[in-house]
Protein 1
Amino acid sequence: MRESVQAEVMMSFLVSEELSFRIPVELRYETSDPYAVRLTFHLPGDAPVTWAFGRELLIDGVGRPCGEGDVHIAPVDSEVLGEVLIRLQVSGDQALFRSSAPPLVAFLDRTDKLVPLGQEGALADFDAHLDEALDRILAEEQSAG
């Protein structure tokens, strides 16, 4: 049975040091992909953009800087559970978002009630997800090339 947890969080999109604006971000977790969370950013004038990354990365990033590659998450102040920075990067372009930590923690707590951390393997058909992801990547490469 496919179950999910959803939440909407207002985040600041930090365009520059002088310019930022608040946007709604949908957080989603599904038992069909128990290792991942999805954040859908609703930027004004643009189609929504969804990023998927490890649930554990978001859990860890609320309390300490973490992430390699395209996603980096870190608390603004590691001494206080206040705000979290989420940096998403594609090639040389990057987007920086600031979120209040308590709504993220509440969302993560709900995901943990649905699938406790460390119990994802009981739900995941890793080989099927890997095959799906590889097929999708190959199809994207063929259509782009």
Protein 2
Amino acid sequence: MDSHDAELKKELNATLQARRELGDEYESALVDSFLEKVDQRIDGAVERRVRRQMAEQQMVVARGSRGPKPTDSWGERFGFGIVSMVLAIPLSAIGGGLAHLPGLLVAWAGIVGVNAVQAARTNPGLFGGRRHQKSGQNSEWEG
């Protein structure tokens, strides 16, 4: 039990003791007072949590990094590769059976194309080549 819970328990005990001393006519006022204190405690906790989350988001933006995306997981990439290979078997059979070598080449071009698009989506700089350096900075290859 933390200090906030202990304080709340003390408040409840004080409210119950005051009700015993004052009687039933003050019960609604005492209950309202206690609930107001509980509401203030909840509002404070929610406000602290929201401020903390806002600060975390601002830190992510300030660092210039992107938050983790659920679609960038290793499991998705692995699953996509497995599904591609499983589907490659019947696509190869259909393409090769209907149009022989040209059909097989078209089927595999489609499979490679779909995987290339997926790889480019999950790794944005993958097919972009070298990025241009800022002016004034020399690379290791320049003399």
Protein 3
Amino acid sequence: MSGNEKPRPRVLDEAEASRLLGARGFGVLASVRASGHPHLTTVLYHWDGDRRLLRVSSTADRGKPRQLSRDPHAALHVSTPDHMAFAVVEGTAEVSEPTREPGDAVGRELLSLLPEPPEDEAAEAEFLREQVAERRVVIRIRADRLYGTALDM
């Protein structure tokens, strides 16, 4: 690049966008409010690139699960720490039922979203009880589209 040329954005292919999603853990989830306005919130997420599945833990009474149950259109945006690249996953969301019994299928799925498993069986049992008490749900977003851009400096 000569001194007068400006860097140009480079479109990420799906594999690059998927790698960026997998390398991060926090992103901004967009859903649609009843008014039609976007609702944005920072979330901790889990990306499974092989299944093209994004999962987020939430509580049943928060806005995200209610909004996504009404209108399942969703997107998640992540960027590199220097903000020189970003990736977006767009898709259709599904909200699980709240976990109702410690160790039920939803509770086990929530357990699988942890970055590291609990230290022992007692810690796992406590985690599963907390998820029931908090009325935790899993928001699952199946990727319809992955895209992104990088500005290589």
Protein 4
Amino acid sequence: MDMIFFDNIDKLGRIVLTSVMVYVLIVLVTKVSGKRSTSQLNNFDWIVTVMIGSLGASTILLKDVPFIEGVSSILVLYLLQFLVTKYASVSPQFSNFILSEPRIVFYQGQFLPDAMRSERLTRQEIECAMRSQGINSFDDVEAVVFESDAKLTIIPKPTDDTHGKENNISQTIKPLM
């Protein structure tokens, strides 16, 4: 109970210094690794980000984890993320293995209950995505796609002359059907 607010000045100094060094490291490596590290995260990127945060916190707070060991583990994760995403960009099979497929959860005025249940989505979440895009009517929506980054994409109905023709399916959702 005697160490609730303060243990000793040496420990505090180590934590402050290590925090600054880990912060600078993560900012620099994130900058070098590019937009992928801070963009809308898919499951794979999210897991790596959480692991890097955990390693950073461990390096800062645990005196049994020397700075060089913490830095090494963080750099290895960034390197692995780079290699995996680089390989996924050239190998569709590998990309399909590590990333979840987009899925249509609403199509031509109908919620798709099996797809929603499988993705654990509620009607309210889909309606929220529609409202955030300024869509007030289900009739204005061709489809809603639950993307691999867990974002809901709203595809509006076409407004040109081909709207009334059958089999006019958006090119971006045709591969998902």
